[in-house]
Design goal:
Distance between the termini: 16 Å
CATH architecture: 2-Layer Sandwich
Keywords: Coiled coil
Organism: Peribacillus asahii
Protein name: DUF1797 family protein
CATH superfamily: Protein of unknown function DUF1797
Largest sheet: 4 strands, antiparallel
Structural class: alpha+beta
Order of helices and strands: HEEEEH
CATH topology: Signal recognition particle alu RNA binding heterodimer, srp9/1
Shape: globular
Number of helices: 2
Number of strands: 4
CATH class: Alpha Beta
Radius of gyration: 12 Å
Length: 79
């Protein structure tokens, strides 16, 4: 549960940071390896999750709910 709370706290801080600019970004890593990047767009109140793969390609997903993206990041960090 504490890891979920940590992810949620980082995303809430990202929202606060984006109030001063149009967007803000954060990376999530495991042992120094970037797993994903989250960009928050304050104008649209949307999160964009970019998931990196081992083959160098990435996939992007849009979220309008902080809880849903928190769970998605948690799942990524567990695998």
């Amino acid at each position: 549960m504490s890891q979920l709370q940590g992810i949620l706290t980082r995303l809430k801080n990202l929202q606060e940071q984006a109030k001063e600019t149009e967007s803000a970004q954060r990376f999530f890593e495991i042992d120094g390896v970037k797993i994903c990047q989250v960009t928050y767009f304050s104008k649209t109140d949307m999160f964009e999750l970019e998931v990196y793969s081992e083959k160098g390609k990435s996939s992007k997903y849009q979220f309008d709910n902080v809880d849903m993206i928190t769970i998605e990041i948690f799942d990524l960090l567990q695998s």
